[in-house]
Amino acid sequence: MSSTGKATIFASRATTALKGVMGVLAAFAAWEVVRQTGFIDKRDLPAVIEVMEAAYSGLVHGDISSALLETLQSWISGLALATVIGIAGGLALALLPGLELATRPILEFLRPIPSVALIPVALLVLGIGTSMQLFMISFAAVWPVLFSTKAGVESIDPRFLETGRVLGFNRAERVMRILLPASLPYIATGIRTAAAIALVLAITVEMLTGRPGIGFYIENVRLNGLTAEMWGGILVTGIFGYLVNALFVGIERFTLPWSPENRDA
Amino acid sequence: MSQPLLSMEGVSKAYSADAQILRDVTFKQGSNEFLAIVGPSGCGKTTMLRCISALMSPDSGSVFHEGQSFDDPPPWLSIVFQDYNRSLFPWLSVRRNVEQGLRDVARSERDDRVSEALTAVKLDHAADLYPWQLSGGMQQRCALARSIVTAPRLLLLDEPFASVDAQTRIDLQDLVMDICERMSLSALLVTHDIDEAVFMADKVVVLSTRPATVVEEIPIDLPRPRDQLTTKETPEFLSLRHKVYTLVRQQAQ
Amino acid sequence: MPRDIRLRALFWQTATVLFLLALWQWSAVTHPAPYLPPLKPVALAYLSLLKPGNFMDTVFPSLSRLAIGFGLAVVLGTVLGTALGYLRRLDPWIRPVLEYLRFVPTVAILPAALLLFGATDTMRIFVIAFGSVFPVLLAAIDGARRGNALLLDVARILKFSLAEKLFRVVLPGALPSIFAGVRIALSIGLVMMVISELIAANDGLGFYILRNQRLFQTANVYAGVLMLGTIGLILTLGLLSIEKRVLAWHRGWRGLSDARS
Ligand SMILES: Nc1ncnc2c1ncn2[C@@H]1O[C@H](COP(=O)(O)OP(=O)(O)O)[C@@H](O)[C@H]1O
Ligand SMILES: [Mg+2]
């Protein structure tokens, strides 16, 4: 490509970025307008700059960052557990049609139950503690992994498997070398969805049971009337949620360049 | 007043600096004239129709409809697009698709006119079917019905028969000629099929390869009504066909 | 599916369900524990939730808040998304803000909603709507943007007004995408409904479940969860049947292109 072409592309990227920044500024302005109209008590809706200050100092002085770290820990362990169980379960359902058929009504009934409704049940059975938190996060996050793994395996062209047979793979090798890699794009999408759900559950459990973490932080500063800190916590949580998704998209791009989702360009 | 129905004056169009599509296209179409434009695939015929219908404005030059220029499609103009399976509303039945042109017309009159248009294209039996239930030829007839139901004066046809089978193509050619005759419609048919152009038109405009410009206008004075068998066997038809073919072949070199 | 295979499937499905129920009952009887009530009280509690009085106190408040919040989200998301998707040039302006908002874990705004609206129905409806609007909005933008441009040319030739273009061309074309968003939104809406009742309410199913958990009325807790499952299932099936009707044309097209390719 010619250097003028590159310059044009750079210029158009720059205008796009500029428009985006203007959009963000417009959102801040809208916030300020709502504040000024007085529909909402100004103390409940602090100025954008105060919220940012609270977020920044929370991150630097450790309140928010340590809470975030706690959430990160339970989120990662719950998600890891959900991923392992989800992939194993999805493979089992896809490879054993009898199992899938027999358990279908149960799965179809369990799936639409809003997982947070099980928090009280989990409290009864497991009490307040790490195991309960882990159970809730992974229970909620397991479904997308499970069903996308199943869909991934079912989408595989049977010719792949015949090729494996011709190459003399045994059953375990066929699963590890053909089924899993070929369904990875599906599984990756499932894990990305699961990551968002797991985060919601981690935060909810913290809010409801007072376990340390960003959810507890936000609820706690609200109860103490620290509104700027509360909004700051929400702001940071949003950025965290965004980064989590970006991380997974990045990993997928990097490790699965052949996946159909990465070929859109 | 004897302004031509349509007049293109020095129309040029480029999608980008290094992709000139139309260069100085000039021709006229009179009232009740059936004009055919032939040019190789990709030479810019669809682009030209989009300029004519004011869906797009030319970079330079002008398009006049009876001496006036338009920023929006003139109300008396209709188009049958090349891509029939994308130009019908897939969520509406055939009847509702055709109705879309008559949204301001009173219910009873609208029903009558829709039925009339559907009968004209021989699609009355399929009025309640959806586009996906129709064959390619039927979809194109539905698009044709939608175009004529508004009683236009100028009908633009963008390679309307390009992707249907040979028999359907012949039927559609006869149907379009018949409709234009009966409704005294002027038609502008874009095609890459030379036989079709010579057989249907009163005048054939030959375009060059990209960037497209008018190479020659050839009047076709074959008598009407024309017949797929007898007209195509007359020496006049064959010599006109020969002439157009030679011009088009020269362009390809 | 042939008849005998379907019968066999039904047999095994029933057998599995019965086996699990029997297992539950057996453990409840042999290893009595507060969190493991026998089946009968759970069933009775479930049925009593359906009695008009209980229904109006417990199930109805949840359902009505869900209906309003989710309904608002669907309408707002669809209308705004269709317009924003059609006005492509606006996209670079709003994209970063939208991309940020969509990834905010929805529960995080719960304390803020409590602060602004107090423990009111407005708060609960707001959280439900906030949670479920983004999937619909983004799906509508996406569907409207990827719509068929040729149909917009047809609309111009046929002299459609801007509103007609939006509602008769862009919106129907975006509906397949919108329905996919609405399905996701429904599950998020259910989750937000329950959370908002767990954290601050004095009626509704979430409140019922939480109160009975505190009172160790475990049969009632399970009955509440079962009721939520029932609601989720019914709403999902309802949505699917609406989708099946509204998008019949789309399945027709797709079926055709699948058959061709
Ligand atoms: N929107 C567009 N942007 C850039 N190039 C285009 C666009 N539409 C068409 N072209 C190019 O312009 C040329 C002429 O296109 P078209 O008018 O559709 O030709 P025809 O109808 O004669 O086949 C083609 O090479 C096509 O690739
Ligand atoms: Mg073309």
From TrEMBL, chain A:
Gene3D superfamilies: MetI-like. InterPro entries: MetI-like (IPR000515), MetI-like_sf (IPR035906). GO terms for biological process: transmembrane transport. It is found in: Cell membrane. It is a multi-pass membrane protein. GO terms for cellular component: plasma membrane. Its main location: membrane. PANTHER family: ABC TRANSPORTER PERMEASE PROTEIN MJ0413-RELATED, ALKANE SULFONATE ABC TRANSPORTER-RELATED, MEMBRANE SUBUNIT. Belongs to the binding-protein-dependent transport system permease family. This is ABC transporter permease. It comes from Pseudohoeflea suaedae.
From TrEMBL, chain B:
It comes from the Bacteria. PROSITE patterns: ABC_TRANSPORTER_2. Keywords: ATP-binding, Nucleotide-binding, Transport. InterPro entries: AAA+_ATPase (IPR003593), ABC_transporter-like_ATP-bd (IPR003439), ABC_transporter_ATP-bind (IPR050166), P-loop_NTPase (IPR027417). Residues 6-234 form the ABC transporter domain. GO terms for molecular function: ATP binding; ATP hydrolysis activity. Coiled coil: none annotated. Belongs to the ABC transporter superfamily. PANTHER family: ALIPHATIC SULFONATES IMPORT ATP-BINDING PROTEIN SSUB (PTHR42788:SF13), TAURINE IMPORT ATP-BINDING PROTEIN-RELATED (PTHR42788). This is ABC transporter ATP-binding protein. It comes from Pseudohoeflea suaedae. The lineage of its organism: Bacteria, Pseudomonadati, Pseudomonadota, Alphaproteobacteria, Hyphomicrobiales.
